[in-house]
């Protein structure tokens, strides 16, 4: 499993990187706008926190393929390191994927809601596809089932494209996406914490330490 953090807040990224085995960060225009700072400054601050070797996924905002391609060139020239350009699976987005793949860009097809969108993006050349699990669940669909169907298609056609499941609001959704064959998940900081936390873990650790300290030195087992 590849874990990514879905936020554009450099401080939250720094904190999460100290704890979790994160392979990088994903952003989208909404979470970047939330930071209320200059776009490039935010992206460069994120890059400074995660280093050049971790993945950074940044989305284009243009509506036409040529505009998306220009934005991809701009990002590649301004943000170093392991960069993935996120492109929505619209007709113009698919056209942009076909334009950018031969130019050597790493691409993440985003705003994926159906297995056929994912298959088209993969055949067009996307490195990752990002199905939106929570948005699917919220609209009466089944995010985990969509992830499973995409995985089945990619495996049966021998496609190298990986599934970066996205848009999670709780730990159960992440768990089900993992069971359904997602290669990677991008999770916001709160949901990432929810994957690790359990009250019985805290209770057990407290009990171990209390029992130890009843007999031995306080809070340590070495000199
Ligand atoms: C990932 O690529 C998306 O930016 C993100 O996960 C969307 O999440 P949301 O549905 O919480 O906005």
TrEMBL record:
Keywords: Cytoplasm, Schiff base. One of its GO terms (biological process) is carbohydrate metabolic process. Its main location: cytoplasm. It is found in: Cytoplasm. Transmembrane segments: none annotated. One of its GO terms (cellular component) is cytoplasm. It holds the Pfam family TAL_FSA. One of its GO terms (molecular function) is aldehyde-lyase activity. This is Fructose-6-phosphate aldolase 2. The lineage of its organism: Bacteria, Bacillati, Bacillota, Hydrogenispora.
């Amino acid at each position: 499993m590849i874990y990514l953090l879905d936020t554009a807040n450099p401080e939250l990224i720094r904190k999460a990187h100290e704890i979790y085995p994160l392979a990088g960060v994903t952003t989208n225009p909404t979470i970047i706008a939330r930071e209320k700072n200059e776009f490039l400054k935010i992206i460069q601050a994120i890059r400074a926190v995660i280093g050049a070797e971790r993945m950074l996924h940044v989305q284009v905002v243009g509506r036409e393929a040529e505009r998306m391609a220009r934005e991809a060139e701009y990002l590649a020239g301004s943000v170093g390191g392991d960069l993935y350009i996120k492109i929505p699976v619209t007709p113009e987005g698919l056209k942009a994927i076909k334009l950018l793949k031969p130019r050597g860009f790493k691409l993440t097809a985003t705003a994926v809601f159906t297995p056929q969108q994912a298959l088209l993006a993969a055949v067009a050349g996307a490195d990752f596809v990002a199905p939106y699990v929570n948005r699917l669940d919220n609209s009466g669909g089944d995010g985990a089932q969509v992830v499973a169907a995409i995985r089945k298609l990619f495996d049966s056609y021998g496609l190298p494209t990986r599934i970066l499941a996205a848009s999670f609001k709780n730990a159960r959704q992440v768990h089900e996406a993992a069971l359904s064959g997602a290669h990677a998940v991008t999770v916001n900081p709160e949901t990432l914490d929810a994957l690790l936390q359990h009250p019985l873990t805290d209770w057990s650790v407290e009990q171990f330490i209390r029992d130890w300290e009843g007999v031995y030195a306080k809070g340590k087992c070495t000199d």
